[in-house]
Amino acid sequence: MSSHEACRLADLAPGSALRVEVAGDSGTVEVAVVRADDGSVYAISDICSHGQVSLSDGEVEGHHIECWLHGSMFDLRTGAPQALPATKPVPVYPVTVDGERVLVEVP
Ligand code: FES
């Protein structure tokens, strides 16, 4: 795993998500960087496990993000689906906030 700057904290309003491409050791990883309403920051795969759509286009609710296409909710802390139709988790990645820098570790 290697850590890369994904965005600036100022780019992420509370309750919002941003799609970023992070260079990993074995290629580019599409990541949704998410800031919950309480200010905590998460990184989760941007690709819904049910279909090939971008989770960062969904709604952030508490510590979950809702896929805009069919409404599955994913836990931002674990990637686990909390509502059908998705049944498979999505990968989550470690995040470090260093001042204004949001660093994400991807494989
Ligand atoms: S594509 Fe995300 S729930 Fe169906």
Give an account of the 3D structure.
This protein is mainly β. It has a single domain, classed as Rieske [2Fe-2S] iron-sulphur domain (Rieske Iron-sulfur Protein). 0% of the residues lie in helices and 48% in strands. The protein contains no helices and 10 strands. It has strands spanning 2-8, 16-24, 27-35, 41-45, 59-61, 64-66, 73-75, 92-93, 95-98, 101-106. The strands form 3 sheets. The protein has a 4-stranded antiparallel beta sheet, with no helix packed on it. The chain has a 3-stranded antiparallel beta sheet with strand order 1-10-9, with no helix packed on it. Strand 2 and strand 3 (27-35) form a beta hairpin. The radius of gyration is 13 Å and the shape is globular. The protein binds FE2/S2 (inorganic) cluster. The site of FE2/S2 (inorganic) cluster has 10 residues, from loops.
What's the arrangement of secondary structure elements?
Blueprint: E1 2-8, E2 16-24, E3 27-35, E4 41-45, E5 59-61, E6 64-66, E7 73-75, E8 92-93, E9 95-98, E10 101-106
